[in-house]
Sequence to fold (377 residues):
Amino acid sequence: MFRYIFRFIPTLLTIIISFVSVFGQSAEQLELDIAEQVTRIAELEQAYLNGEIPPVNEADFFDGDLAAELDAGLKFNEISFIATHNSYQKKSVEAIQNIFYNISDLTFGLVSGETGQFNSQTLTQQFNCGIRSIEMDIETIVKDNTITFTCMHSPTIDMTTTCYDFALALKEISLWSDNNPGHLPITVIVEPKSIFLPIENMEFFNMDYAQELDKVIRANLGDKLFTPADMLRDYNTFGEMRAADDWCRVDEMLGKVLILLHETGVTEDYIALDPTFGTQAMFPMLREKDATRDCASFLLINEPKKALECKGSILDTHNLIVRTRADSYGSINENKRESAISSGSQIISTDYPMRDDLTDSTYVFTFGNQKTMRSVK
Fold:
């Protein structure tokens, strides 16, 4: 026992020293990330105006004949998208990387040492590679009576991000959509995070902030936003719409963006705000236990084995849309991957998406032949 403890004393000391370095490195990198986002969005806007960025061909990413599927009336719950997880996150600062590698040693690999290497491309690059579903973690900042939302993984510690300003991230989405007006609908999962180590002016997410978030979304997406009311049309509830198996046709949703509110402490209050969903900007995401509720539309079943087990009841009977995960960074499991694909889930998140910098030896999760979308009807 003592031999084990003495063996890892140097590792423990290294972790402690790394933690001391984290805060300074993270704050310095965050300032760089904030400035980089502002510059990048301005340059993108100008490049789009100058016609320097050609639109993508949506059919290139679809496993099958996209035009024929759309003409045949493909519905939104009949299409599956490969999504990205923590779509904003950049490689951690050096001190965090060191901590993960040392914790991996202490846990004999139970915690992956590669975790700090996770490095998403920008939203624009992801969309250009066929990704049509992303996930954004947000924190609420209140300063001088102004509410803003920032996007990062862990305040104070792991803050590297391409999308610090959430409103600017929405602008990036809108700019790309303007340049690709016939794109398949984009879903954005927004997850309000609980404060781990608070920074100045950071607040817990509550209903007032949920309503402010609705305003920010509407202001930045405008008529690109596809709301719950747009999906419901003349139906009174999602339960009624699902019973009729009448999700909107995809060809009626081209060029649109849907915002999904990840399960949070205010979900029930958000639903109660307007049970008809006539005013909410976001679709609340619920869990498996909520499958029979009239307010249910999108479900979180992150374990693909469970999603596969639930396929008959949740997808085929209740006609819900499910988000599951195929992997996590540093952990690739073939059984998990195959369960995610076989589950028929419409949103399948991966930490190994198509990228524009792949090499022949790089692992990537697709539906085969580098396809990121497919019909599951």
